[in-house]
What does this fold into?
Amino acid sequence: MIPPSFDYHVPRTLPEALKLLGDLGDDAKILAGGHSLLPMMKLRFANPAHLIDINRIDELRGVREKDGRIRIGAMTVENDLIDSPLLQAKVPLLPEAARQIADPQVRNRGTIGGDLAHGDPGNDHPAISIALDATFVLAGPGGEREVKADRFYHGTYATELAANEIMKEIVVDPFPAGTGYAYAKLKRKTGDWATAATAVVLRVANGSVSHVRIALTNVGPTAIHATGAEAAVRGKAPSAAAIEAAAQAAMAACDPAEDLRGDREYKVAMAGEMTRRALRLAFERAGVRVQA
It folds into this structure.
């Protein structure tokens, strides 16, 4: 289908984009990579009178380190995450996970900020950002504010981002030495959304788990911060029993919708299996042996 007609705006600076967004109000939508918005427009699920294309705002792109933190422009595309030497060295979960998103053509255009701001529970970056304990910098007419990833999502397509705000950047901390990480994703075919997926970041000190964050993709109305699964392994020795307890807790947190990827029971079971796989790989990368 062809989208309905709209006016097209191409600001060159963030203040110009924010002014357009304020002047045009609810009739305007931000266009980033377009892979989420344009299909919704074709299906008439979205019908904006104005599109504000922010692709030419250079300050919204790139990966840099400042004051000991990694700052990622919201308009940075997936392939730039994959190719970033800084992320490969200091936050390797991000380039590894980006390789599992869609296909090369989509990764050339799809942006991390668009993925995050859309609020689709099937998108990968929300759960990854929760596992990374990321902070989102939101720019609006009154300046900038910061929101933690696990406080950003309110429901399907409902986020903390106000109608007159633009996501500017994503801020994450470099991994300390000995950090284990993984993003285990089950999908039907290349380019598909996850049937279920689990993101894990952890560290082990003195024989027990000292830090762990676990988040789930596409098994609820939003990405799920699986705090129960975290509690099942935090302070425990890495063991098969602890991993199984975390998997069971992750499954208990799920509330998936049935679709072509599976019914509720299947998706819940796969969330548990992805949690087992992600934890085992994360422990391996942290350099510790899982007790039988």
In short: The chain has eleven helices and 14 strands. The chain has two domains: 1-175, 180-285.
